[in-house]
Amino acid sequence: MTDPLVEIQGLTVRYGSAVALESVDFAIDRGEIVTIVGPNGSGKSTLIRAILGGVGLAKGRVRKAPGLRIGYVPQRLALDPTLPMTVRRFLGLPRRVAPATARQALDRAGVPGLGERQMAALSGGQFQRILLARALLEEPDLLILDEAAAGLDQPGSAAFYARIEDVRAETGCAVLMVSHDLHVVMSASDRVVCLNGHVCCAGTPDVVAETPDYRALFGEGTHGTMALYRHHHDHRHAHGNEHLHHEEPAE
Ligand SMILES: Nc1ncnc2c1ncn2[C@@H]1O[C@H](COP(=O)(O)OP(=O)(O)OP(=O)(O)O)[C@@H](O)[C@H]1O
């Protein structure tokens, strides 16, 4: 048994006096696909920032495997649309990459032949594939995606995540993603972690889908569409995400 790629113990993160995450334990192993779900403001991006090293830890620790290579795909990236820049050139920033390496990354991201296109001329789906290709240049052990398919329509999002599964199969990298697309989450993940300031529940998609906490958060998905329910527990937390254990459909 090898050590996890990332192991988080007792993590608490505060922004000023507000607690974003409290006492979070989390680990991801080599080759796993793990999805983080949770309502807006539940600390999903904060957990990712803690792994990327972009946030101070009030308590706990984040341990990474020595030499861990991380590829990161953001939700979006603002580029000046008036700036002429080909995909090839974009992939070579900030470090030059060999043409064969860039080609392989574009192939893996499912957009072969787009190298000479202008970045400003890409569709939303193609743009996200280019961000994926850029992350793959790192030959990551761990690919992190923070709502990377958020702007895509349902077929576009499904195709994007199918490609992520292919990338995992081809390269053996682990994948940690935040997604609101529960259909995708349930079909593509080995493990799901449900956050709401703390870890509400975690496990295989089948098991998590049956837990009262998960059902209280998301209800039943219909045709891949998320039916979001307000989350209520009957206890209080220092992180301020108050919730009682009963279901109440969101408007
Ligand atoms: N830089 C910051 N300064 C202050 N508060 C922040 C900052 N970043 C996040 N927060 C707060 O921390 C909490 C968790 O935010 P986070 O972005 O991690 O949630 P999230 O689950 O990713 O949300 P969403 O689904 O809306 O993207 C929220 O209450 C948010 O307002």
Verbal overview:
The chain is an alpha/beta fold. 30% of the residues lie in helices and 25% in strands. The protein contains 8 helices and 11 strands. The chain has helices spanning 44-52, 87-91, 99-108, 124-136, 154-171, 182-188, 205-210, 212-218, and strands at 6-15, 18-28, 33-37, 59-64, 70-73, 142-146, 174-178, 191-195, 199-203, 229-232, 246-249. The strands form 3 sheets. It has a 6-stranded mixed sheet with strand order 5-6-7-3-8-9, with helices on both faces. A 3-stranded antiparallel sheet has the order 2-1-4, covered by helices on one side. A two-stranded antiparallel sheet has the order 10-11. Strand 1 (6-15) and strand 2 (18-28) form a beta hairpin. The protein is globular, with a radius of gyration of 19 Å. Residues 222-236 and 242-251 have low confidence and may be disordered. Residues 15, 18, 20, 38, 40-46 line the site of adenosine-5'-triphosphate. Adenosine-5'-triphosphate binds at residues 15, 18, 20, 38, 40-46.
List the helices and strands and how they pair.
Layout: E1 6-15, E2 18-28, E3 33-37, H1 44-52, E4 59-64, E5 70-73, H2 87-91, H3 99-108, H4 124-136, E6 142-146, H5 154-171, E7 174-178, H6 182-188, E8 191-195, E9 199-203, H7 205-210, H8 212-218, E10 229-232, E11 246-249
Helix pairs in contact: 3-4
Adenosine-5'-triphosphate is lined by residues 15, 18, 20, 38, 40-46.
